[in-house]
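Homework-ish question, so no full write-ups if that breaks the rules, but can someone show me the predicted structure for this set?
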Amino acid sequence: MNWLLVVAGAMVGAPLRFLTDRFVQARHDTVFPWGTWTVNAVGSLILGLLTGAVATGAAGSHTQLLLGTGLCGALTTYSTFSYETLRLATDGARRYAALNIVLSLAAGLTAAGAGMALAHALWS
Amino acid sequence: MDERAPRPLPWQGEWPVIGAVAVGGALGATARYAAGLLWPTPEAAFPWTTLVVNVVGCALMGILMVLITEVWTGHRLLRPFLGTGILGGFTTFSTYAVDIGRLAAAGRLPLALAYLAGTLLAALSAVALAGATTRALLGLRRRPA
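A: Not a homework solution, just the prediction itself:
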């Protein structure tokens, strides 16, 4: 029944990504995909925290399936990130395309690292 | 627009779309979970399964977006269900970011950087090539910018 935990997490994570994207994109006037950037950064932070919690024994495998594989996996997306980057490049906004790659990687890696460090500070 | 007029909340009038995204997301995440069970990658090894999942999801996204924006005038729930739902739920950025951090923390920095760059290049190539191939097969001209 482990897959039910994944399904439950994903049924929250995917709509949360859709709604966050709508909310963020309605609040700026640039072509930069801040909506996808936001969900990828937030999801990486939560997964970093969760991964650290599992490593220290503060969270178990069921929590990992529900919040990690399910929620964070569905909240974040590589396909939309890639598609939006390509669209920016082919629509003549190459600088924004490059900026999207740099800022998404910087935010995702920083958030994941911060989450793991925070978990170790809290639970080890 | 009147600044004082309240903006509609993001979910207003969107319940069918939200439902389509939720069901699609559950299907995509289940497929990603199944891939991880079928092809588990050991801790501190190169995360091949997540890389393949992300690249396949990007290739399918390239095909889907050509079909949806240039070929079909499909049902309004088709894109939320297939793109935002299934492919968004199938691919993952958080596992990608955390795995890079884990490889780096395990002292495997070259492997972490290879995974970082390898996924990025393969994913962007996949979405571009799949889109271009779909367009070529269907005899479509390049979408005007």
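Now go work out the reasoning yourself. Hint: The CA atoms of residues 50 and 63 of chain A lie 8 Å apart.
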